[in-house]
Amino acid sequence: MELIDGKATAAAIRAEIATEVEKRVAEGGRRPHLVAVLVGHDGGSESYVANKVKACAECGFRSTLIRRENDVTESEMMELIDNLNNDDDVDGFIIQLPLPAHIDEQKITAAVNPEKDVDGFNPVNVGRMSLGLPCFKSATPAGIVELLRRYSIPTRGRRCVIIGRSNIVGKPLASLMMQKGVDATVTVCHSASEGLADITREADILVAAVGRPGFVTADMVKPGAVVIDVGTTRVPDASRKSGFRLSGDVDFENVAPKCSYITPVPGGVGPMTIAMLMLNTLQASR
Ligand code: NAP
After folding, report:
1. Does ligand 1 come within 6 angstroms of the Cβ of 142?
2. Fewer Cβ atoms within 10 A, N terminus or C terminus of the chain?
């Protein structure tokens, strides 16, 4: 079994980006500028945004964090997005989700200029991705495909089973895995799927994006499979300074010995998501 080191791979990608940025700056070009909008003070969102800002510094980007309180109105958010869409100094921006319930997330993501939509959540980018056209790819699925590529894990003709059909992971990943060039045979499972373990046992590449710690047990995995664990659930843990630890969807201890490759949590898919956001921002600034 080989551990897929998302942390090291993401660091390598950030270093590649930084090299390109410094070259550009040396030639008189400008640094890419990413803006992150954070509404409220959710612990998970705070830490994701902090990691994104840190990654920007490592890539040589400028970054700006814009905060709004939970009582921000939808029209105030729309006005903010309009300003960012029209600000030539901003290459790309993200609205950290989730947003408070009184704000329509669909309306917000649709308002982001597709050319600055480095999260790849705008319907234009989602549609272009599914057509295989140039676009900003949703970062988590793009990070998974990049991990497979950098570890030279074959995908062509392989059976890929994805558990989860969310708009940010399962669905766009299915679209990327079946695309020409990646060429996997894809099955997507969800809460209404019958005989789940029978389906997952057929997977050469099994991706878990459920949000339930330990959901994927050893009996669900074919010997020699590649297992990608997207899950990141905060589980209370008194032994940690933070009071919690991150738990994946895979029963790592019992599944890992059966796999050819497996991603850990933390240190697997998570860092790659941010690295792909950086790549999208670099692309937006070109
Ligand atoms: P989500 O929107 O809650 O989707 C979960 C999916 O799991 C749904 O499609 C759901 O099916 C399916 N599901 C739930 N119970 C199931 C069951 N018993 N059998 C089969 N399928 C079941 O979650 P998400 O946004 O995709 O996130 C999934 C996990 O990944 C979370 O832990 C999240 O924190 C993590 N995540 C990590 C990253 C990263 O960068 N590492 C990025 C994004 C998300 P239905 O559609 O039928 O409800």
Report:
1. no
2. C
Is domain 139-270 classified as CATH 3.30.420.140? no
Is 71 annotated in the active site?
Answer: no
Catalytic status, residue 96: yes
| C-alpha span between 2 and 139 (Å, rounded) | 24
CA distance 114 to 126: 10
Over range 114-130, report the average pLDDT: 97
The yes-or-no answer on residue 106 being catalytic is: no
Closest-CA residue, ligand 1 atom 40, reads: 270
pTM of the model: 0.97
Which superfamily is assigned to 28-113 in CATH?
Answer: Leucine Dehydrogenase, chain A, domain 1 (3.40.50.10860)
Distance CA 2, CA 10 (A): 17
Taking CA atoms only, the protein residue closest to ligand 1 atom 35 is 231
